Amino acid sequence: MNGFDRAIAPLLPEGLRSESIATLQVNLGRTCNLACGHCHLECSPLRREQMPAAVMDDLIALTRRSPFRLIDITGGAPELHPRFRPFVEALCNQGRALQVRTNLTTFSGPSCAEMLSLLRAHRVALVGSLPCYLEENVDAQRGEGVYQMAIAALRILNANGYGIDGELPLTLVYNPGDAFLPPSQPELESLYREELRSRFGLFFTRLIVLTNMPLGRFRRRLEATGELRVYRRILQEAFNPSTLPHLMCRHQISVDWDGTLYDCDFNLALGMAVNHGAPRRIESFDPALLHRRRIVTGLHCFGCTAGAGSSCSGALAGS
What we know:
The protein has 319 residues and is an alpha/beta fold. The protein has twelve helices and eight strands. The chain has an eight-stranded mixed sheet with strand order 6-5-4-3-2-1-7-8. Helix 7 (185-200) links the parallel strand 5 and strand 6.
């Protein structure tokens, strides 16, 4: 029993278990045009892992027969996958609700017009990472010039209705620049709205805040500065039991580029596949076995339960 399991044992004696699979999260690979300092998957332009056509076909067959409420496509930069557009179109033609997670910069040039037209036509929601509303903070995390590329992308997205038309939602994502918990999501959303509106005339639908997980590049930075133990203590001491019912692992499942199943994107980063007797591959996906599966946990789970909580959908509860 790890430290997280001990913390939740008085509340969940049978361990952390799934309650539904409302969301299917699909990771198309590690290829990205950026190499952000907080990336728990350590994606970059040098990574070549991409979902093969056979796994995409298995996913399309799975979504055809399973009633997921949302298909959540992520990466890397999923838009850079060579079969991104036909994959999205096939899912949308099934009538699925779809959202795509993006670092925004792929929408900052004229070459994005065809892809954006496809996403608009199918009312695909966008979740765009903008880790701060200040240029110096974004460039420190993501690289020089990335902030201006993101702002250019937001202008293009607004011009195409995203963040303005209620059927074209544009969610922005904040994460801290260092080893501290994110601030209040509602308060930060108000700041983002005012800053982006007053400085650039830009609009978005909502903001979600994410806690930096001590994984990947961020973990290596914490190790290099001697802060890893301190940050882990911050997360553990901020454990909030009220986040447990809303944890993303209890309501979704993640599929990696190679077809392996994970309870969440962070377990995926650690290579901790679905376990405890449940199927571990997309080819053997069994809703009956996966629906009430016991979730694989570790000390990193304190990152999702600290303060107001954190998940792919943002804060989970009051801090």
